[in-house]
Write a structure and sequence with these properties.
12 helices; single chain; Polyamine Oxidase, Chain A, domain 2; 20 strands; globular; 2 domains
Length: 418
């Protein structure tokens, strides 16, 4: 393990890897310090379940035609699947007739238009304030909100939601987005299983206190999830109360995936979808045969996912089994079995899935991203104004932080030379 570097990158997820790649390729000595036994952070592809590459964390290339991970995946010679996502099409008819689906989609579009129109024009409020009172689709729109933001609409800032930018193009990497993210760090100096407890920035050089000793550095890029900063799992000496407060206003929502094996998969169209229920926010959505595989990707969000995590994989499976047999009949239970799940709220190095802003806290993203004394820099999806909650948002903030480090380094060198 190295005990000295010029730039320490704390966290080896999409932001940290992006920053490290930029610095390393520019000839700036740097080191990724990662608490896990692997790189990728909340981008994690598992290949230990039936031979399929399963993205247990983020899996979609959102805004794929402008998403830098798309070109990175292509350079790695990955296979890009351009099949439209199931949420862009009508779901299967089971328990949800197509005419009702069209009515739901119309109601959802109207809700999103109200969010966009409200945007910056009025004092911030919870997104739920713009739901139409008594609309029969409010609970299902709430469920979809938990898939999108990881939280129920009453928790989410209207201003923050309206700032999110998405061009509607969504692709996937067959070999896994997590695989792509981790491979982008190939050749970059890295130390794993090395959780950082404290960054002491009171001296001439930074002292980064880890589980495996102290690492000294001239500068650091901090890329850990906002939940770890809010809960001070990573501390600063002297303290940075503005960062802690900003992070607390940008909590991590929760979205968990359970993968099921599916017998007789040919009965379902590839990349189709079912909603578990249409009258409850505590429901899952079921992506049938992703990539045409004999699988179901079950997606849970918000409080429902948090409650189920308390019971582990068995609780998720029982919830999914109950909803699926309600749609497809009791005999369907014999055709499914659990394969893989990762509970992101219980993950000590994530403590959630992706950030949303509480009402009145949207501007905290800029506060979180602001550098400190040209020595501490911050990146991660929570620092992104328009691409938060995504792997590409994380990457872009990592690149911006790396560029800021290079600019500060050049400025110092020029000052010393003069």
């Amino acid at each position: 393990m190295l005990n000295d570097t010029e730039v320490a990158i704390i966290g080896g997820g999409a932001a940290g890897i992006g920053a490290a790649r930029r610095l390393h390729d520019a000839g700036v000595p740097c080191l990724i310090i990662e608490a896990r036994t692997r790189l990728g952070g909340r981008a994690w592809t598992s290949t230990q379940h039936g031979g399929f590459a399963l993205d247990l964390g983020c899996g979609w290339l959102h805004s794929a035609d402008r998403n830098p991970w798309t070109k990175i995946a292509e350079r790695q010679e990955r296979s890009i699947d351009r099949t439209p996502p199931p949420w862009m099409r009508l779901s299967l008819n089971n328990g949800f007739p197509h005419d009702e689906q069209r009515a739901f989609v119309a109601a959802q579009h109207a809700f999103y238009e109200r969010l966009d129109e409200a945007g910056e024009r009025e004092p911030d409020r919870p997104a739920s304030a713009l739901l139409e009172p008594g609309n029969r689709w409010n609970k299902l729109m709430g469920a979809v909100a938990t898939y999108v933001t990881g939280a129920e609409p009453e928790q989410v800032s209207i201003i923050d939601f309206a700032r999110y930018e998405d061009d509607g193009v969504n692709w996937r990497v067959v070999e896994g987005l997590g695989t792509t993210v981790a491979a982008h760090a190939d050749g970059v100096p890295t130390v794993l299983e090395c959780a950082v407890a404290c960054v002491d920035h009171g001296g001439t050089r930074l002292a980064i206190e880890t589980a495996r000793g102290t690492i000294t550095a001239d500068r650091a890029i901090v890329t850990v999830p906002s939940a770890l900063l809010a809960q001070e799992a990573l501390r600063f000496r002297p303290a940075l109360p503005d960062k802690t407060e900003a992070a607390a206003g940008l909590p991590l929502g929760l979205a968990d995936k359970l993968f099921l094996s599916l017998a007789r998969p040919e009965e379902f169209p590839p990349d189709s979808r079912l909603f578990g229920r249409t009258d409850s926010t505590a429901t899952a959505t079921y992506h049938m045969r992703p990539f045409g595989r004999p699988l179901i990707e079950c997606y849970f969000g918000g409080r429902n996912a948090a409650d189920l995590e308390l019971g582990g994989q068995a609780a998720f499976f029982e919830f999914a089994r109950t909803e699926l047999i309600g749609l497809l009949g009791a005999a369907f239970a014999r055709r499914i079995a659990p394969i893989a799940l990762h509970g992101w709220r219980g993950d000590p190095f994530a403590r959630g899935s992706y950030s949303f802003a509480l009402p009145g806290k949207a501007d905290g993203r800029a506060v979180l991203a602001a550098p400190v004394d040209e020595r501490l820099f911050f990146a991660g999806e929570a620092c992104s104004r328009h691409d938060f909650s995504t792997a590409h948002g994380a990457l872009l903030t990592g690149l911006a932080a790396a560029d800021a480090v290079i600019a500060a380094r050049d400025k110092q060198q020029n000052r010393m030379a003069g």
